[in-house]
Amino acid sequence: MSNNGAKQAIGRQNCALSCSSSILPVLAGDWVPNAKLNLRRADHPAVVDSPTSLEMRGGVCLCRQQNRGNCINMTSSSSSPSIVVLGGSNSLLNKGWTDHLKEIHPEPEQVINLSIGAATTAMALYRLLTCANLPKDPVIVWEYALNESNYFSHNESASVLIENLEWLLEICVRRNYRFIPVIMYNKKEAMSFERNHYRKLLGETLASHRLISIDLQELWQERFASLDVNSLYKDNPHYSTETGLLQALAETVLEQAALARVPQRDPGLQQRFMNRSLEILRPTEGVGKKFKNRLMDCEIFSLDTEMNFKASGRLLSCYLISTKLEPAIFFHTKNAKRGPYSTQISPKEGGPVKQLKHLLLWSPEEPPLQVENELRLTPLPFYDKKPVVQHTMAWNKLDAKEPSGEGGLIGVLMEISH
Fold it and tell me: Any alpha helices (H) in 130-225, and if so which ranges?
C-alpha cells in the first residue's frame, strides 16, 4: 500500500475521508452581531447585551421581561441549525436527551449523534475526523466532561484530556463550526461542592475560548431543585430519564444552538497549532478485515502480527475493536517506545463482546512518541507481567490454548507537522 493510502481515515460512518484534507484555517466570527459579551466564567452565568437582551443562566436562555416581546423564536427551522453530538453514554440513553432533541428539532434528520460511551474527547476526534456525512455548518455539542472526570479519577492526566479538547476546538475554529459544551456530573460529584483538578482546567479552557456551557448542575438547581440527588440519577455515571431534566437539557441545547459561537483561539495556543494537523493512519502492509455494526463500518487489523506505519509526527492515541482475548501491545521507533498497553476489555454479562476503544499513548511524564518516517506496533500475546491498563480496559494473562481475539486495530492518531 502506498504512503498516501496509509493516510486515509479508515474508521468511518458510511464512507471514509482524509482526516486532514478539509482542515483549513478559518477565523471565528462574532456569535451575535454588534453584541458585547460579559463572560465571567465558561460554566457560570453570563450576560449578553444585544438589541434583544438575553440572560444566560445555567445555560438557559431567558428573555428579560422588558424585551419579552422580542424574544427570538428558537424553534423555527430558520434558527435551528444542524447539530452534531459528541459525547458519552449519557448521550446514548434510550429516551434520553438526544432522543428528545430529535423529537423537537424541526428537522430531526439534522441531529447527528456520534457519541461513544466509556470514552473521552480522543474518541470525539476520531468520530469527527472520520465522519463523511456531516451536515452543513453544524453546531458541535460536546458532552465528555463527566467521562473525563471519571478518567481523571482513575489516574489519567488532566493535561492529556485537555490537550485533546484543545485540538477539537482548533478543528472547530478551522472549519468554522460553532460549539456548545454540555457539562454533566456523576452522582458523587453532584453531592459535593468540591471540583477536581480536571474540572478546574476545563473551566479555564472553555473560558479562554469564550464559550458558554450548559451546566446540568445549575439547570438542576434552578429548575428541578425539588428533586433529590437519588431521583436525579439512575446510577453513579448516568442520569435518570424519568425526571424531566434531560428533556429540559434537549430544549436548552436547541435554544442555544441558534446562539452558539465558533470558539475563539486562545492566543497562547495559536503558535502551538500553527502548521500542524491531525491524521488517522493505518498500517502500510497487511490486509484488514471488515467490521460493521450500527455505529461503525471500517477495516480492522488483527493484533496477532506486527504492524508498520509510514509517518512522521507525534503519536497521540490509537483506536481498537477490543475483546477479552487481545494481547498487550507496544509502539516503538528506532530510539524509543511506549507501552506495553492492554487491549483487552472485560465485557459485562449480556453486553457487547466487541467494543470500540481508544488508548491514550502519552502522559506528562512520557511525552508523545516522536516518529521519524516509521512507527512499529508489536503485540505481546503471552506477556507475563501486567501492562498499562487504562480506565475501562482490563487485563487477564492469555493462555496459549485460547483462541486469538477477534478484535483489531483501526488506526493511530498522529499530530503531523507541515
Answer: 145-153, 158-175, 187-190, 197-208, 216-223
